[in-house]
Amino acid sequence: MMFPRAFGAIALAASCLISPSAGITYDPLKPPSYPLAVRSPYLSAWIPGNDVASLPNSNAQFWAGNALVWSVIARVDGTTYNLFGVASPNDDTESGTVTAATYTSTHSTFTVTAGARSFTLDFFSPVSPKNYLRQSLPFSYLTVTVAAGDSTSVQIYSDISGSWTGQATDSSWTHSTSGSTSIFQIEAVGQAIYSQNSYGQALWGSAVYATRPSSTSTLSTQAGPRVTVRKQFVEDGTLTGDYADWTPGAVTGFAHDLGTTADESAVTFAIGHVRKDSINFLGTTQTGYYRATYADNIDAVTYFLDDYDDANTESAELDDLISDAGSDSFGDKYSDILALSVRQVYGGTEVTIPNDSLDTSEVRAFIKEISSDGNINTVDVIYATFPIFYILSPEFIKLLITPVFEYMATDAYSENYAVHDIGTNYPNATGHESSGESMPIEESGNVLFLTYAYQVASGDTDLYDTYSSQLETYATYLYNNGLYPAAQLSLNDALGALANQTNLGVKAAVGLAVYGKLADDTSYLTTGRDWGDKIWTDHLGTDADGTRFLIQYGITPWFLVYNHFPDKLFGLDVFPEDAYNATSDFYPTVRDDAGVALDGSLAWGQTNWQGFAAATVSGDARDMFIDDIWTYISNGLNTAPFSDKYFVTASGDYAAGESDSFRARPTLGSHFALAALSNVNTWSSS
């Protein structure tokens, strides 16, 4: 088995950060939270960066912050060491010492010393942008490697509990084998399909844990009360093969005996959460793409373990690509931001096919607005992610927006502007609720942007060809309503519905220009540019001296102009270079203690829109945005999975640089906006 590539080019390119208190090397930095197993909205396990020093006794966490039982324990010459996730250690065990932590775009790796040997725990969540089979498999890898050293006997143990089912008080389990692969499956009893608990965990499906002997290990298994199963390993270094009835807090455990050796040895586990009924799309069931080939859970996880070497090779190539896309463009700090963003974006997205036909020609993708309100395929969330897809997998833009177009073509939707979302509560894509958010100009502009981004990056016109009639309707709405917007919400929905929002006027102007490119109609491009002149040159949306954009026509305060990005990306010239030069000069003058706010009335900013703004400015302003986001993720104040919303100045109980409410949202694709200016569909591995 190939040794996991835990230390990619990103880590090598950046200088290491060392914690003086714990003696831990963090490479390239200590983030708010490390992705451990992040493959879907329901397989989303993390460890806060501030918990790494106590990794042996700190639980993994679901994205919402609730504990997940997932442990790694090792015996070295008969002495037992807790390496990871043992919050309540058994008697006669010691805690290992963490010496290093690193992350790349696909791996989070920790080095733990235990007695005479050193262990590496490599948490590997594949990201396979153009291989739908690999990307859709709802599993992640954990490889535990014992480094070469003095000859010792070594055994490695790992377990999980029903905490992964979302219904930990009432579950059941089964054990099975497929060849040499040993598989535990844990299911919630009385499963409630398409529903979640208060933490956002799925209340249906199966938690899966699997492993197989390596070339140097023998494998034993056991399930039962946590203290009992772990005690068995502590005392004997092996498990009994007994499977007690499930009880709350019980675990399913594996033990690998590596014998007495001085050589490097490794064992790999696969962890997953499987839902055969994945998405309710307009009353029909969608399932994971992989099920066209591996319909059974056991077959799927067995293949996943078989695929390790190929997946790991691909991940090494992707790590290098992300590193180069960042550091070659704007330095190592930018690479660090991109690498921490990748798994969070793809881990909020699922690739599906119809459950009844398993027809891979009908592939779709669904994205969850994690932690903010749980909507499904929110159009502005897709807009916030699209730069990463533009670079790595433009087909994902099509897969995500197609279900939106399909819904808007039904009798259930009759508006002449684009919808905000196709369901209030993921995974129920059952249609937009009348009480839900409506952003007519915002989303109409977004569907035009997304369609054109897909077309430019892929070279295909099929999305426009299929939905040209709808797109014309939304362009017409912008033409009739966009220059002087009525009171309505924008992406800055915290402000409520405001009339004459400059942000919306900008979106409408650029949206019309984009539609002109799609429809090959220069009149729309001309109108978009005319509106751009009115908003900027004629000061409709600026201060009298033309130094800044205002939040509303003629009304202060200023706001962050993130809707300029498609104008720059597609070279439309809707706004003159003077506008971009002015914002480059202006933003540094309104920077607060930890960054630039979303607008002049707020104490908080959002990294997703800062990422878009960074791609529209130059020089010191661009470097400021990169530095501020990098400082925010490395300041040690936060523990949530990369929150895109944080305080740029102290406010109430929050210090400057602290995150605010959002967790693990997939909107971080916008961090790739700068890279997208020079990288289009650069990923070729499959």
From TrEMBL:
InterPro entries xrefs: Glutaminase_GtaA, GtaA_central, GtaA_N
Domain Glutaminase A central: 331-674
Pfam families in alphabetical order: DUF5127, GtaA_6_Hairpin
Keyword Signal annotated: yes
Lineage: superkingdom: Eukaryota
PROSITE patterns hit by this protein: PROKAR_LIPOPROTEIN (PS51257)
The UniProt record lists the keyword Repeat: no
Alphabetic keyword roster: Signal
UniProt cross-references to PANTHER family, sorted A to Z: GLUTAMINASE A-RELATED, PUTATIVE (AFU_ORTHOLOGUE AFUA_6G09910)-RELATED
UniProt name for this protein: Glutaminase
Annotated organism of origin: Penicillium malachiteum
